[in-house]
Amino acid sequence: MIYEQIAFALFAFITLASALGVVLLREPWHSALMLGVALLSIAVHFVMQAAEFVAMMQVLVYVGGGLILITFAVMLTEREDATDDTETNADEVVQT
Amino acid sequence: MTTKPRLRVGRVLLPGVLAVGLFGLMALIVLNTSFGGSQGFPESIAITSELGYAMFQLDELQSTAGSIPNTESFLAAFFLIAVVLDAALDGAIVLAKREEGGKPVVALPSQRDDAEPARSATGRETVADGGSDSTESVTTTGSDADSATDSTAAGNGNDDNDGDGNTGGDA
Amino acid sequence: MAVEVQYYVLLSMALFSIGLFGILTRRNALLFLMSVELMLNAANINLIAFAFYHGNLTGQVFALFTMALAAAEVAIGLGILLVLYRNFRDVDVTVPTTMRW
């Protein structure tokens, strides 16, 4: 069916765009949200490959467990000086 | 306060070229391979049940339709994964446990411990990592803020101990 | 006609490359964890796609095992991350140089 290919193209685009958002966004919290979007769209790919149980486990384990754990880590390791990106300039880290 | 999502670009040229090159290489291999159509699953089976049968090595219950009987059984792997998850739980507990002077400090202490060491000693020993001098200074300054902020773990008990010594009446 | 398997393989390769790119560029340990999750999900997509391609459930069972391992990895990784933050007040992976020779 042509609809399956349209759905595959759409969700492949969502998956890749949100994965690029994970690695390119500056705030770790935004990256975590983008990771949630990527995991959910990967679950849609699983459903399209007749793997409904794995898709449910993906949503429960990754989005419900792993992403919440990552969210906790983001909250617990919030930087005090979140004013500027200290990870774009590599020379600064030596003196901290 | 919410912040607008900003992209972080710059200083990504070499890893970007590397990742795109790897993707190009793998895509070249895939596109030169002829896969043919997918076989798919037969309509008469319930996939979730067959997953359970394969995972717990219930071979008698497996369906015989299509190539489902070629599904391997995974009981030993299931058990190994269970052991690995147990090990991960223990490792997470060991990593999250915080020791002060050789004794573990729980987040919500049920009883006061009279033999707690003094605060000046604990601050050094908690953050001791054997690093260089520069990191040592960072960690000591950090430990002050640490004991000031998380009051549930170390701050409360130590403050009380410093204040009223060994009365122990309010415990 | 469903989507052919090579597009799923391409998708998983692109996802893997993005995860590799994230590991190579970021210095925040949290982003390392997220990139590793992306790469594990790329492997899962491959497993599921080839399970459907062969009409065989081995790939799906193995994808479930991979997800359990990923959960264990995230638990251990976050424990290490919190210890890192407690000791160094930062989650930058280039700050801890104690074990560097």
Automatic annotation (TrEMBL), chain A:
Keyword Amino-acid biosynthesis: no
Residue ranges the record marks as coiled coil: none
Keyword vocabulary terms for this entry: Membrane, Oxidoreductase, Transmembrane, Transmembrane helix
Residue stretches spanning the membrane: 29-47, 59-77
Molecular function per GO: NADH dehydrogenase (ubiquinone) activity; oxidoreductase activity
UniProt EC number: 1.6.5.3
UniProt keyword Oxidoreductase present: yes
InterPro entries given in the database record: NADH_UbQ/plastoQ_OxRdtase_su6 (IPR001457), Nuo/plastoQ_OxRdtase_6_NuoJ (IPR042106)
PANTHER family cross-referenced by the UniProt entry: NADH-UBIQUINONE OXIDOREDUCTASE CHAIN 6
Protein name in the entry: NADH dehydrogenase subunit J
Automatic annotation (TrEMBL), chain B:
Biased composition annotated in UniProt, kind: Low complexity: 139-158
Region (Disordered): 104-171
Protein name stated in the entry: NADH dehydrogenase-like complex subunit J2
Keyword set, alphabetical order: Membrane, Transmembrane, Transmembrane helix
Organism per entry: Natrialba taiwanensis DSM 12281
Transmembrane intervals: 12-31, 74-96
Automatic annotation (TrEMBL), chain C:
Keyword Ribosomal protein applies: no
Topology within the bilayer: Multi-pass membrane protein
Gene Ontology annotations of biological process type: ATP synthesis coupled electron transport
Superkingdom, natural source: Archaea
UniProt KW keywords: Membrane, Transmembrane, Transmembrane helix, Transport
Regions that span the bilayer: 6-24, 31-55, 61-85
Pfam families on file: Oxidored_q2
Localization per record: Membrane
A GO cellular component entry from the record: NADH dehydrogenase complex
GO molecular function: oxidoreductase activity, acting on NAD(P)H
Listed name of the protein: NAD(P)H-quinone oxidoreductase subunit 4L
Annotated family: Belongs to the complex I subunit 4L family.
Signal sequence bounds: none
